[in-house]
Amino acid sequence: MPLARGAGLVTPLQLSGAYSVFANDAYRINPYLIAEVDDARGAVISRADPLTAAKNVPQTLESRNAYIINSLLHTVATQGTGSGTNALKRNDLQGKTGMTNDVKASWFAGYQKQLVAVAWMGYDQPKTLGSREFDAQLALPIWVQYMTQALRGIPQQDAAGDGQARRHNDRRREMFYADRTPGTGFVASIGLDNKNPMAGDATMMGGGEHGGVCAAATSHHDERRQAGRS
After folding, report:
1. Residue 105 shares a structural domain with residue 172
2. In this model, does residue 43 exceed pLDDT 70?
3. What confidence score (pLDDT) does residue 213 get?
4. Alpha-carbon distance 71 to 223, whole Å?
5. Count of domains observed in the chain
6. Roughly what angle, to the nearest 10 degrees, separates helices 63-79 and 12-23?
7. Which residue among 28, 39, 51, 81 sits deepest, i.e. has the most Cβ atoms within 10 Å of its Cβ?
8. 216 and 173 in contact (C-beta within 8 Å)?
9. Is residue 19 helix, strand or coil?
10. Cα separation of 77 and 31, whole Å?
């Protein structure tokens, strides 16, 4: 169960592979470290045969799920704890800051549709980086400096919405599946009906028999207010 809340240990390579699922429209590829090995005469001894999204790898989740996650992570990268990415002056970046207990490691995992990069800061033998150090101050600037060069000349590529419907109000942007909008199959709450605790409350919008998912990208103010709990 601790894995669900981020308590497990992963390497930057593993984390980049996980985030690539969202960058690749929900297709899972396998990262590799060595592209090619040649001998002294230039003959190829070994060459990687990388998997390609949408060609020879399975789609691990629905593309509309990936789209919603991309939307949420875009808000983090542009208006939340990762807002330092705005220095790149791009509108196609997603990412998430991270920090382990006692500030023993600092992370920033972020991506654009063509490139995923993970920046990590810590000691080989884990020890605290200092009580005043934060992921946005340590790992994020490294990521920004790298992406400044890596994305030079690459045009912006906005994620396309697959099967999405959007509704707006004055305080926040809410996103719903096209077949799970309020009043049409969307379950706003679960467990409020004492007679049937697994059903949605019929007094709420769209409550009823059909399951649904809602993802809401919070406002700038709400994101910053919650940043300390991430």
Report:
1. no
2. yes
3. 36
4. 13
5. 2
6. 110
7. 81
8. yes
9. helix
10. 23
Range of the domain at 198: 164-229
Q: Is residue 121 part of a domain?
A: yes
Q: Which are the contacts of 163, defined by CB distance < 8 A and separation ≥ 6?
A: 63, 64, 177, 178, 179
Asked if residue 169 and residue 121 are part of one domain, the reply reads no
Determine how many CB atoms are found less than 10 A away from the CB of residue 186: 22
CA-based end-to-end distance of the chain = 17
Same domain, 74 and 133: yes
Distances (CA, A) of 40 to 43, 45, 48, 80, 169: 7, 10, 19, 50, 64
Tokens 């992570």 sit on residue? 73
Q: Are 30 and 51 in contact (CB under 8 A)?
A: yes
Residue recorded with tokens 């929900």: 26
Write out pLDDT tens, residues 59-87: 898 888 888 899 999 999 999 999 999 99
| Domain-embedded: residue 7 | yes
Residue 172 pLDDT more than 60? Answer: no
- 104-114 pLDDT, tens digit per residue, is 888 999 999 98
CA dist list (Å): 212 to 176, 179, 216: 9, 9, 13
106 within some domain: yes
Closest by CA to 80, choosing from 70, 94, 91, 64, is 94
Tokens representing 210? 């059909």
pTM of the model: 0.71
